[in-house]
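Suppose you are handed a protein chain with no further information: no name, no annotation, nothing but its sequence. What can you learn? This example shows the usual starting point.
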Amino acid sequence: MAKADQILNSVYTYLNIQGSTEEQKYNRINDIVLRLQRINQQNNINVKTTGTISERLCELALKAKVQGYSRITEDWNWMADFSLLGKPFNLLISVKSFKAKERLLVSGSGNILSPSVGWGLFNDITEWTVDRVSAYLYRGFIGIYMPSNLYNKLSPAAKRIKNINSKPLLRKVENFMRDLDRALEDNKINIVAF
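A reasonable first move is to predict its three-dimensional structure. Written in structure tokens, the prediction is:
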């Protein structure tokens, strides 16, 4: 069993959600994130392991809501981790762990005709200044999901930044599954709904 799965299983056991469905687990995403942050503070989790954990958590929502998604591997995984069939264009999802750094900014398609969503366990408030958040718009991002405990610390100006669809760019991670569900049409993601 991979180290990421060992850690996630310990978190699920701690939260008493081990046998729950993907949707039930994702509904506890903030509790999961807080537990992971505590584990990381006590004993720093390897960056590669944290990346795998982040992908597994994001995928809980995808498994619960979307049939038409695929994992991006090998030569193209610098761009995103998942691809969702979309109307009229596909959607890319770039998953990062605790730090966005430059990796999130340079991921995604860089094109609004194939927009991107960022999803992460982000925990560094200094990465979310107005100027930096605005730069994601130029890279074709239409949403970036982060834990509530970070989102609640963001400046009002950063929270007010809108995507190309006039909807908030920065969002709470617990709303990701709901947004996917709302954007689904004929099992394809309507990117205008994002």
